[in-house]
Every structure is written in structure tokens, then in C-alpha cells.
Amino acid sequence: MTRVVVVDDHPMWREGVARDLTEAGYDVVAAVGEGTQAARVCAALRPDVVVLDLQLPDLSGVEVITRLVAGESKVRILVLSASGEHQDVLDAVKAGACGYLVKSARREEFLEAVQRTAEGDPVFTAGLAGLVLGEFRRLATTPATGTGGAAAPRLTERETEVLRLVAKGLSYREVAERLQLSHRTVQNHVQNTLGKLHLHNRVELVRYAIEQGLE
Amino acid sequence: MGLEAPLWRALAVFRLAALGYAFLLVLNKYRQFAHPAAGWLVLAGMGAWTLLVWVAYREPRRRGWQLLLADLVVTAGLLLVTGWIGTGDRWRGGAGTMSGAWIAAPVLAWAISGGRRRGTVAAIVIGGVDLVLHRDVTVNTIDSAVLLLLCGIVVGHVARLTVDAQARLQRAVELEASTRERERLARGMHDSVLQALALVQRRGAELGGEAAALGRLAGDQGAALRALVVGHPPQPDGVEDLGVRLDRFSTGQVAVAAPATPVPVSSSTAAEVTAAVGSALDNVSVHCGPGAHAWVLLEDEPAAVTVTVRDNGPGIAPGRLEEAAADGRLGVSQSIQGRIRDLGGTVTITSAPGAGTEVELRIPRRVPGRQA
């Protein structure tokens, strides 16, 4: 059974989400309201999926994600955000979240998203695809800062094509039909785009650390 | 400690310097005095008063009318006594009194404390005493009275300006602090309001019936609020972030995808593109019914800005567009095409029955990488 940890500072929301997940057959091993607590609980319980609210009282969403990803467990993080603030969402995904959903999403959408996250399939809403597409274009046009900067990651033509269709609201199935690809291939393309972004983010972090003289 | 404090400090320094000058005057002329010993005594009195008010004026709350009045009376009194010391003749014909510029100090004090009007009153009092002392009116005595008056008015004016400037500065600082605090609070509050709206929407959908309608309402309001509060850096004059404009279209039925960074275009371009997207979305709700969903994608490339509006409606049968054009019933799509063509852009409409309709607006950037 898929083990899930719910992190949200709003008690009613936390309970509602936990109840929905339990009813859908997930094992909700913990539901906590703070970032530091979440990091501690996840290190001990090693859940498969973390459903994380970006707005927490103690830590920023990116910080929580960084701590969760830093642990050795292969935890998958689905980010929920009430405001859907673009930069926050993009930063969360770059830090290692596998998907993002606004809190106004319907119950079925939410459960589907959790299921896909558990399967390791990135949850790309149209909005997120637009953000990621924009980020790759930004990286391509901004010159790398400093010497030895990592080359900006680039999308292949196919990946761009897939991402554009997802950003226009097409489901993976519809994308597969339109491009005459298998569903699996579409999934792989989307996963690759996210992988490139994570990798670039990690490389950038390491480079930053070296530049600042940190080990 | 405000901007007024330096003025009071300057006054104390002035008084001390004027006292030094008076000392030199007495040292130079005491042999000619009718009462030389009294001259030194008066100088000592001036010194004592200078020290006393120096200390007294340092404390803002002691700068009341009692002290100001005492300052004026004592100074005027000392000035009168100098007349007795120097015997009539000595001061006639415009020769300066032994107290010299020192008598201007209370005029300055009055001016700093209360502006032009008080400065003028003090100047008239001291100037009047000075004139009485000299008995006959000459150019020189008039000159010193006028200088005293000017002194009172100018310093009073400057003091008033200083106080005003300080009040404004204070208000600006307070406003800035409260704005920043409000923004910080608003961020947290918007998030919890959005959270609550999302919760209502979610529970409403689960309960069904009337609650579901309420839930949908909460969802739409949430989307509107989200579009309003999502922060973007301000753009320079005449330039707008197209992303912010298009975000306002997002509702429960319309999803807007855009880059996280601003997409700067000229204000006129933003207005035209927004109007075109609005028409396209109107078209969706007219032709595809209330259940249809629409997606707006904004892409920012070095060469062009592309906006795509897609719906999941029934689509347009081949030839339908041409047919409608022949009937002269292509209002909406023509208005979209007109607006975009005026910007030097192109409109591409792709559709197939059952596969929805996609309207792509492509607006070239005049200078690559610069605003469209």
C-alpha cells in the first residue's frame, strides 16, 4: 500500500485530504502542519509520497523540498498551492517536486495526481507546463553568469512539442494521439524535461556553493 | 531628535560667538565708559545668561513661552543697561552698543520656535529698545533694526520649512513601513482566504446540489483573487506584463499558462492582445456551451510573443468558416484578426470536428528580444 504523508498548516484541509486519501485506499502514515516536523517525520517514516502545501508557517516550500530530497529515500513530492504564485511553484518544481496542483482542483483530479505521483509520473497541469516551457526559454536566452557556468539545459524539439501541447491543456492521451506516439513515450518526454530542470538546479546549487567557498 | 535640533545648536554657537565679540568690544572701549566696572558686570551677566539658556534650550520641552519671554526680557533689559553704562554721547551717531550682535539671539530663538511671525515680534521689541537707546534716528540705527527684522523673518521661514519637511519625511517613513507590513500580512492572508475558498469548493462539490453551486462560486472567486494577488514586478511606463493581463482570464473553466517571468510588451499591444483573447474566450462560451473548458498559453520567444486559446468544444466543421465569411457572419474572428493584423501579427485557426478549436495569435517583436 502506498504510504503518504500530508503536510499542511490548515487543520481542516489536512483532515479532508487525509480522509480522501484513506478512502481511496492510501495509507496516510502522518499528517503534520510544519516544515521542520515534516522533514523529521519523513526521515523516520520514509513515505512514498508527500503531499505538501507550499505555504507553511516555519519553512519555505523550497526549503522543505530540499530537505526531503536530501534524505536518501526516494520520496516523491506533490505540491499543493493555494495562491499558485508562479515563481513559488516553479522554484518548488526545480527543487525536486514531481508535480503541482492548485488547491482548487477537484477531488478526482487530486486523487489522480497522487496516484500518478506514486507511480513516478510527473503531474503536469497546463499551468505548470507553461511555467517550465517559459523557464527553459529563459535559461536559453540568459547568458550563463560567472565562469564555468553550467550550459543552459535545452529541450529537444519533440520535448518542446509535447510540453506545448500539455500547456494547451491536452491530456497525455490526446498528446499521444496528436503526435502519433505511445502514451509511455509522451510520459517519458515530460519526465525528461523535469529531470533536466532538476539536474540543472542541482548543478547550479553546487556551482553556487563552490563560488561562495562552501564545501 | 528632529531636524529642528541643529537650528537650536546653531543658535547656541551664535550666542557664544556674539558673547566673544561683545567681550572684545568691552575690552577695547571700557576706558571710555561712564561706568567701566558696570560694563564688566553687564558682560558677566550676558555670559551667565548665555550659559543658562544654552542649557535651557537644549531640552525640547523647556523651549516654552516662559523661557522665550524671559530670554527676550533679559536681553532687552541688558541692552537698556548698556545705554546707561555708555552715557548718552557715546552711543549717539549710530555707534554700536557694547552688546553688539548678542541682542539678536532671542530674535533667532523666537523665530526658530514659532516661525516668521514670532521672529518679527521679537525683532520689533529688540529693535525698538535699540532705537529708544539711541534716541536719534540715523541710517545706521535703522539699518540694524531692519537687519534684525530680516533676521527674524528669514530664520523663522527656514525654521517653519524645516519643521514641515520633517513632518513630511516622518509621514513618508511611516507610510512606507505600514505599506510593507500590509503587503506582508496580505500575502499570508490571501493564502488563507484562498485556502478557505478551496475548501468550500471542495466540500461543496462533495455534498452536491445547492452546496455544489456555492462551491463553484467559491472556486471562481478564488481564481479571480489568485489572478489579482499573484505578484509581479512593476513594469516601466508604457510597458505592461502580458502575463498579468492574461492571468485575469483564469476561472474555473479557463486555465492560463504563462512563464513565471514577466512578458513585457507595449501597453497598446497588451490592450489589443487582451481584447483579442477576450473575444476568443467569448466565442468559446457562445459556441461550446457552459461546460466547455478553455486553455490560454502565453509563450515568450526572442522573435515573437505567441498566445494560444484552445477549447475542448465540438470544433468547427471544415468549410464552416468560409461559409460564415460568405454570409458576413464572421464578426468575432474578424475582430480578432483585425486587431492582430494591426500589430503586424498573424492569426491561425485550427479546428476539427470533435477536437476543439485552437486560435493562435503570433505577434512579432520589432527588435528581437525587446518589447513587442
Relevant terms:
A: 215 residues, alpha/beta, Rossmann fold, Arc Repressor Mutant, subunit A, 2 domains, B: 372 residues, alpha+beta, 11 helices, 10% strand, disordered C terminus
Task: Explain what this protein looks like in three dimensions.
Chain A has 215 residues and is an alpha/beta fold. Chain A folds into 2 domains: 3-123, 3-Layer(aba) Sandwich (Rossmann fold), CATH 3.40.50.2300; 128-211, Winged helix-like DNA-binding domain superfamily/Winged helix DNA-binding domain (Arc Repressor Mutant, subunit A), CATH 1.10.10.10. Chain A is built from 9 helices and 5 strands; from the N terminus they run βαβαβαβαβααααα. Chain A has helices at residues 11-23, 35-45, 61-70, 86-95, 107-118, 126-141, 157-167, 172-179, 183-211; strands at residues 3-7, 27-32, 49-53, 76-81, 99-102. Chain A has a 5-stranded parallel beta sheet, with helices on both faces. The mean pLDDT of chain A is 85. Chain B has 372 residues and is an alpha+beta fold. Chain B folds into 2 domains: 5-174, no CATH class; 236-372, Histidine kinase-like ATPase, C-terminal domain (Heat Shock Protein 90). In chain B, 65% of the residues lie in helices and 10% in strands. Chain B has 11 helices and 7 strands. Chain B has a 5-stranded mixed beta sheet with strand order 2-4-5-7-6. In chain B, strands 1-3 form a two-stranded antiparallel sheet. In chain B, helix 3 (65-85) packs parallel to helix 5, helix 6 (139-207) runs antiparallel to helix 7 and helix 9 packs antiparallel against helix 11 (331-342). The two termini of chain B are 52 Å apart. Mean pLDDT of chain B is 81; it is low at 88-95 and 368-372. Chains A and B meet through helix 1, helix 4 and helix 6 of A and helix 6, helix 7, strand 2 and strand 4 of B.
